[in-house]
What does this fold into?
Amino acid sequence: MLIALALIVGQASNTSTTIGAVSTCVPANVKALDQGSCQHSHGPAPARKAGIKPGDKIVAIAGKPVHTWVQLGAVIRAQPAGKPVPVVVQRGGKRLTLSVTPVAVPGRNGSYLGIGDALVFQRASPLGALSFAGSAFGQVLTGSAQAVAKLPAALPDLFAKNRSHTPAGNVSSVVGVANIAGQAVAAGGGWQVIVSDLLLIVISLNIFIGAFNLLPLLPLDGGHLAVIIYEQVRAWLARLRGRPDPGLADLQRLVPVSVGVFALLIGLGVLLMAADIFNPVHLVQ
It folds into this structure.
């Protein structure tokens, strides 16, 4: 599916400084920023007040040329809030210099303009699609392992107000996955963005479930594989010693372990669903 995504939809790139969206307001705080909420806002966003429009390409800020979105974000955050700065944009083949006054959002590091990047999708070649699929698969596996490793530390923050900015923001249940998928659709951005986001959510979920199921714990499939490997190793050692095959392992002894693991998974699932219902994670806008 990853290969099909790269071949048909394309790979998203935000390396340019082209504006994809302009916020309507200055969020009241970081939580409002995460939710894309303008409730109790502090007025129009600086970019909107200055006349910056979607499709504009920012060339320089405060006299500093910018060439990538990462570089652009770093320059914006470094500007002092409340002090006007010149922003050079390219629009329709012409360069315009606009005066923008960055502001501070309570709880957020650095200044805020209220702009979002424009994603460009490029369809990959068959070889490029294979490379993308391998890289994305590895990233999902690594991210899944890191999320599981941080799970004990994340549990206390499941119901924290700033959950999205804690390790608890990286763990979720099927309820949370559905919620994030709904947010991705509501955010819009064109069919390529929506389809790419939804497919990546489904793909990531399947990879995580498949990898988690291979953990050497009963009643997971990985636990059954571990038992089979144990039986084969034990039979091999018995042959080396000239002894008869000891046969199948006694799984009855592992029933308490299986029940304990099953109960733990059920309890964790219920806890995550409760957190996703009463304290959902919101996509950063």
